[in-house]
Amino acid sequence: MSKHIKFGGAVVLAAALALLAWAVNSIQGQDPVAFNVQIVSSDALADSGDKEVARLVVAVNDAKGPVSGLTMSNFIVDTRLVPGGGCSVDLTRVNESRTTAGAYLLDLIPAAGNASCIWLQGRYLFSVLASGPTGSGVGVVELAVDPQ
After folding, report:
1. What is the dihedral of CA 127, 31, 24, 90, to 10 degrees?
2. Residues 37 and 78 sit within 8 Å (Cβ to Cβ)
């Protein structure tokens, strides 16, 4: 009996970005660096039944310390699990802290292009890839959305 594993587009893209970072570092004569990615979630404005913003606070470090200067294009949020009938999320904004190097605030909303996608009460699970010119790393976080 054969089993097939399906990978989402974001997982394939994350792997491609990690490979690209490794290739760039190899060409430049640098060893690829693993980023340490730590994440905390907050349902912020999001409640069950709406499309308001939920937030992730993401700290990105490498062996030298905080990794600064990342932008929205350096992050991929992959929705791994949702409450039954729920939708994946879209990353809508990334802001680096002005006072804490390597700390980023990521805004998430339920599938922006689908008006019927709303937050559902329950637990969501996300993997977050942070990648840059010197390395990459992945973290995992759970987000609990409470009733209104």
Report:
1. 10
2. no
Average pLDDT in the 76-101 region?
Answer: 96
What value does the mean pLDDT take over residues 41-68? 95
Q: In the structure encoding, which two tokens stand for residue 88, read together?
A: 């994946």
Amino acid at 65: G
Q: Is-contact 128 58, C-beta < 8 A?
A: yes
Structural domains of the chain, ranges and CATH numbers in brackets: 9-145 (2.60.40.10)
β-sheet bridge partners, residue 143: 124
pTM score, whole prediction? 0.78
- Picking from 147, 125, 135, the residue whose alpha carbon sits closest to that of residue 39 is 125
Of 35, 34, 37, residue with least CA distance to 106: 37
* Listed residue (71, 6, 57, 60) closest to 36, CA to CA: 60
